[in-house]
């Protein structure tokens, strides 16, 4: 079994329901996120549009975080999930430096690394990840990539040519896919970040996640 | 390139949540800086033994103690940088050998243990023969202990600026630069003019080579990858770290090179000592800039 995730960006409307469901399900502390929805505005007024991109751990087949972790706190499950053992983690932040997707953070309460686990605890009980359940437009498609009859496999088959991963040049072989994505949604360097000009508030850099 | 993409799409991030940016801060800079001095002194002591063993007299114990102190500073800051520092023992009881952090921690521990043994050998037995034999093996071990941090940086896949071949070279050069500088200061009048000039040459050449590598990255790195180009913006023009970067280059490399050359012309020990002090101080700045800037790049 190889579990994977696909987000259809044609469908995502940026409601952030997945983000909140993840927060609640996994008791993610304030100021940290296992799953984030990024908004990017494209074009010049009046020809503009807004794009939404949910970002989470990519559960890479060749995961840099697993390789750099000195104590195997980050490890593979048999179903392909890159899981984390918070009791084992020593908080060296090597995984934070290694993840090309910025998906790992230091939990300010436990002072250990944390990230999306595809809700491994729910999977173990044959339930879907919380973000999949919460999505009102079924933009999140989750399932077994090895099973040709699974929803995700069928989705990939029918959307061939439009399935992308983030930063393929890194060679991490992510098991997290997007359809309907483009350069500005998947490449962080293709859009500007203007300090003080943000939709709801400034991009503030909180002194959290580290003790110095 | 990035700026062309930006112009074409006119895309602006209008909502992204706050994430802390600098995870590896000045504690890690201290770690790399102290380790460079600690292992560098061992390299220089070995070179001294091969070049003129008679000048080792009175320098064996003092040099090793200084190296031992700096290696312990390195270990202390490595430990302090852990968010769960009391779990440090997990590295030894649950080691994951694909990680350069694990390999480095084991080797550094062995290295410091051997150094302690050598200090005991000298202080309790004054056994220079045993010391010199151990020095060979400790010098061999000092090579991977110096290099393993480059391995960590190479495994930090998200930070495109850190590439294994160049970081390895920079780690070794940082050790020879700071080691020769520290040896000049520790050796003082115990070193002959010829030996002091030799260590001055090591210092000057290390500075030159390191400076060439940094300038190569500065000029050509941006042509290879858009991430590197974006990171180097922090040190180019009016970038956020431009001043600190150039202070580092001048203090660690350019001024020591000039002072080493002048000290040879004028036969001045004071100039050589100043070059040594500047090199050691500047190395900290150089290491810090290179450590911090890749962490400023948005990954989302």
From TrEMBL, chain A:
Keywords: 4Fe-4S, Iron, Iron-sulfur, Metal-binding. The keyword Transport does not apply. PROSITE patterns: 4FE4S_FER_1 (PS00198), 4FE4S_FER_2 (PS51379). Residues 48-79, 80-109 form the 4Fe-4S ferredoxin-type domain. It holds the Pfam family Fer4_4. The keyword Metal-binding applies. One of its GO terms (molecular function) is metal ion binding. This is 4Fe-4S dicluster domain-containing protein. It comes from Sulfurimonas marina. The lineage of its organism: Bacteria, Pseudomonadati, Campylobacterota, Epsilonproteobacteria, Campylobacterales.
From TrEMBL, chain B:
It is found in: Cell membrane. GO terms for cellular component: plasma membrane. Keywords: Cell membrane, Membrane, Transmembrane, Transmembrane helix. Signal peptide: none annotated. The chain crosses the membrane at residues 24-49, 61-80, 100-122, 134-156, 168-186, 198-221, 241-262, 274-293. Belongs to the NrfD family. This is Polysulfide reductase.
């Amino acid at each position: 079994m190889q579990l994977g995730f696909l987000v259809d960006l044609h469908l995502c409307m940026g409601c952030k329901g997945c983000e909140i469901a993840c927060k609640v399900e996994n008791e993610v502390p304030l100021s940290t996120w296992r799953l984030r929805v990024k908004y990017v505005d494209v074009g010049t007024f009046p020809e503009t549009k807004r794009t939404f991109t949910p970002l989470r751990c990519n559960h890479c087949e060749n995961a840099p975080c697993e390789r750099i972790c000195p104590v195997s706190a980050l490890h593979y499950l048999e179903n392909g999930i890159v899981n984390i053992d918070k009791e084992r983690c020593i908080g060296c932040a090597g995984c934070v430096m290694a993840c090309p997707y910025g998906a790992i953070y230091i939990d300010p309460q436990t002072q250990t690394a944390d990230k999306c686990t595809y809700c491994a605890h729910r999977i173990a009980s044959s339930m879907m990840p919380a973000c999949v359940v919460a999505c009102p437009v079924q933009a999140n498609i989750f399932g077994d990539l090895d099973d040709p009859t699974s929803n995700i496999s069928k989705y990939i088959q029918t959307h061939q040519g439009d399935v992308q991963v983030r930063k393929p040049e890194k060679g991490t072989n992510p098991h997290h896919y997007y359809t309907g994505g483009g350069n500005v949604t998947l490449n962080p360097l293709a859009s500007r970040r203007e300090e003080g000009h943000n939709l709801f508030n400034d991009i503030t850099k909180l002194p959290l996640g580290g003790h110095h | 390139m990035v700026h062309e993409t930006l112009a074409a799409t006119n895309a602006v991030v209008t909502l992204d949540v706050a994430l802390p940016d600098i995870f590896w801060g000045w504690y890690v800079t201290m770690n790399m800086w102290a380790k460079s001095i600690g292992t560098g002194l061992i390299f220089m002591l070995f070179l001294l033994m091969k070049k003129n063993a008679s000048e080792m007299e009175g320098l064996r114990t003092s040099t090793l103690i200084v190296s031992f102190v700096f290696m312990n500073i390195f270990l202390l800051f490595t430990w302090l940088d852990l968010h769960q520092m009391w779990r440090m023992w997990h590295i030894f009881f649950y080691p994951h050998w694909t990680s350069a952090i694990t390999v480095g921690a084991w080797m550094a521990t062995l290295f410091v243990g051997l150094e302690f043994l050598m200090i005991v050998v000298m202080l309790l037995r004054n056994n220079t023969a045993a010391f010199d034999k151990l020095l060979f093996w400790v010098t061999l071990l000092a090579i991977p202990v110096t290099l393993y941090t480059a391995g960590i940086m190479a495994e930090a896949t998200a930070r495109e600026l850190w590439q294994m071949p160049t970081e390895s070279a920079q780690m070794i050069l940082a050790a020879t630069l700071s080691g020769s500088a520290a040896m000049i200061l520790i050796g003082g009048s115990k070193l002959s003019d010829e030996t002091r000039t030799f260590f001055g040459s090591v210092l000057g050449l290390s500075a030159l080579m390191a400076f060439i590598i940094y300038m190569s990255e500065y000029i050509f790195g941006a042509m290879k990858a858009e991430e590197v180009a974006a990171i180097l913006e922090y040190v180019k023009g009016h970038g956020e770290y431009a001043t600190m970067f150039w202070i580092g280059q001048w203090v660690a490399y350019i001024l020591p090179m000039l002072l080493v050359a002048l000290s040879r012309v004028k036969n001045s020990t004071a100039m050589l000592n100043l070059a040594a002090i500047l090199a050691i101080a500047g190395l900290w700045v150089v290491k810090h800039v290179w450590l911090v800037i890749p962490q400023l790049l948005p990954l989302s």
